[in-house]
């Protein structure tokens, strides 16, 4: 990444949108240069607006990763997620519309219909590395241009650093000339407490596979920092994994508590790296049936 600091100061908001599981969070993490948004093969991993910040040269990019727009069933949780998507789209300078290269489904079409006129949109044809015949992409791109007047097309893979660097150069010209909103080294506007709940949730989904319904969530009850002559920084975190059924609770705890222990260990290791601190993490599992359909409870668990 070249940090050539010439030219006017620019700063603007860039929304990353698309249906679930097209690689939005992977793209955000690649653009920010550090993991701030959780990823898993399970659809529905991102549930909040997550802002990632990257300053390159004289330009500051404020990326907003949105939950994948939900079209399958309407619960209080899904309504909250969809509100997060539509709320973002009205006040950004640029939209990155992420689809899998060569693919366009009804789910993609529903997200595309949300794009606001007058806000430039760039088509990100992601996962290009999985397309076997590159010749198939040209007719697909022509078809996409007929669906929406995209400002640019960027076939890429979020896992390729050269593609990510090229994307910065493409997006830069859409940012307004104005002072930066954040410090040069800031990476996210989310608190460490929020990141702790997200990382526990990621390990939860990764280690339970497809069996666990996505309505499981994580609530951080305690987040306290204590001075430590030995470690420099010592953070005590206590969290509750909330599920809807006793069978889900048993699945998470595992035989003799092994699975819950592994979720805790993997989350703690990652948090220690992310926070540069010694972390003490305690996790419990509680059953709260029907929480995803209860507006008040969805709000109390931190969803907008």
TrEMBL record:
Chain ranges of the Era-type G domain: 10-177
PROSITE patterns hit by this protein: G_ERA
Record localization: Cytoplasm; Cell membrane
InterPro entries: G_ERA_dom, GTP-bd, GTPase_Era-like, KH_dom-like_a/b, KH_dom_type_2, KH_sf_prok-type, P-loop_NTPase, Small_GTP-bd
Primary localisation category: cytoplasm
Region G5, annotated ranges: 156-158
GO cellular component, one term: cytosol
Membrane-topology annotation of the record: Peripheral membrane protein
Region (G4): 126-129
GO annotation terms (biological process): ribosomal small subunit assembly
Keywords: Cell membrane, Cytoplasm, GTP-binding, Membrane, Nucleotide-binding, Ribosome biogenesis, RNA-binding, rRNA-binding
Keyword Glycosyltransferase set for record: no
UniProt region (G3), positions on chain: 65-68
Chain segments carrying region G1: 18-25
Cited function: An essential GTPase that binds both GDP and GTP, with rapid nucleotide exchange. Plays a role in 16S rRNA processing and 30S ribosomal subunit biogenesis and possibly also in cell cycle regulation and energy metabolism.
Family membership: Belongs to the TRAFAC class TrmE-Era-EngA-EngB-Septin-like GTPase superfamily. Era GTPase family.
Name of the featured protein: GTPase Era
The species this protein was found in: Ramlibacter albus
């Amino acid at each position: 990444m070249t940090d050539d600091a010439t030219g006017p100061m620019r700063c603007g908001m860039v929304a990353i949108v698309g249906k679930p599981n097209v690689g939005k969070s992977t793209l955000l993490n690649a653009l920010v240069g550090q993991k701030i948004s959780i990823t898993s093969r399970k659809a529905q991993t991102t549930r909040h607006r997550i802002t990632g910040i990257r300053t390159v040269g004289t330009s500051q990019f404020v990326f907003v990763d949105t939950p994948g727009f939900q079209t399958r069933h309407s619960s209080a949780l899904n309504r909250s997620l969809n509100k997060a998507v539509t709320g973002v789209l009205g006040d950004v300078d640029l939209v990155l519309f992420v689809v899998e290269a060569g693919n366009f489904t009804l789910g993609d079409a529903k997200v595309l219909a949300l794009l606001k006129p007058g806000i430039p949109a760039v088509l990100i044809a992601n996962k290009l590395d999985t397309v076997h015949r590159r010749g198939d992409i040209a007719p697909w791109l022509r078809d996409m241009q007929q669906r929406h007047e995209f400002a640019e097309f960027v076939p890429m893979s979020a896992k390729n650093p050269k593609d990510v660097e090229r994307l910065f150069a493409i997006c830069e010209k859409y940012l307004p000339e104005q002072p930066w909103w954040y410090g040069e080294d800031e990476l996210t506007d989310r608190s460490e407490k929020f990141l702790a709940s997200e990382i526990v949730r990621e390990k939860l989904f990764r280690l339970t596979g497809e069996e666990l319904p996505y309505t499981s969530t994580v609530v951080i009850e305690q987040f306290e920092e204590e001075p430590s002559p030995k470690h420099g920084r010592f953070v005590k975190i206590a969290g509750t994994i909330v599920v809807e059924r006793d069978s889900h609770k048993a699945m998470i705890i595992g035989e003799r508590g092994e699975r819950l222990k592994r979720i805790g260990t993997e989350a703690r290791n990652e948090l220690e790296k992310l926070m540069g601190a010694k972390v003490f993490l305690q996790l419990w599992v509680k059953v709260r049936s029907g929480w995803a359909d209860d507006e008040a409870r969805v709000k109390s668990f931190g969803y907008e």
